[in-house]
TrEMBL record:
Residues 232-297 form the Integrase catalytic domain. This is Integrase catalytic domain-containing protein. Pfam families: Integrase_H2C2, RT_RNaseH. It comes from the Eukaryota.
Amino acid sequence: MKKFHKMLYDRHFTLVTDHKPLLAVFGSKKGIPVYTANRLQRWGIILLGYNFTIRYASTEKIGQADALTRLIASREMEPEDTVIATVAVEPEVRAVVLETMNQLPVTFDAVRDATKNDSILQKAMEYHQSSWPTTCPSGELRKLFQRRSSLSVVNGCLLFGDRIVLPTELRQRVLAQFHSGHPGISFMKPLARSYVYWPGMDEHMEQVCRSCFRCAAVQKLPNRQLPQPWPQPEKPWSRIHMDFAGPINEQSFLIVLDAFSKWPEVLIMSEKTTMATITKLRHLFSTFGIPETFVRQ
């Protein structure tokens, strides 16, 4: 696109690719996914200056263009001009993943071996390397489908951004380490999210903390503050309070109370809608005037 910038700029064109995962990165109306590899993010910023529609076509249908790129054997290109052939995690992300694994009670090789025996993760990796179905799957695969644009495969392991996706047989062991200090759910969740991911992780942590007495003891207690009374108004109809009551005998009522005189106005409501309430209040204000303070329960 840089080579044909003068012809493409300020014109709408169609960008055809034979790599379907790029549709989720550059064709999404939600923008570039947060956990997209750095190289793809740089390309996305460059493409923001163009008006185009990206679509997928198999290699057989664009064989002429594909052949021309392969015929050039000895041509030096800048790193940013390299054609993206796969959605991969860059070396610095791999280093981050390996560093993360050093903090966990499992090794990268153990995760890779367990991933081979996990049917859900194997199916997700298969979809990622080919293409995801158009309809949303069910179960754990559904949550991975919803995050498919941020998934990647590194050395036989599935990653969500820069976090390793744990297979089922290792989750309890890792969860036990995060829970070993009994930090409580409010601290345990962000700690676990910074290292690993698996579908339903939050629900699993909540279940563990709810069944743990020591975690319950460190939970943040709500503030015990005594209710503060409203100040006494200095004149009638300066502050009014409103609430609904009913249904009583199949009728609903709008109750408006003057805080100074404690005088109630009870209005029958045929329906409890915004417009019906506004109509009743306008009629009331035309009689008593507009209050300074209006309190709605």
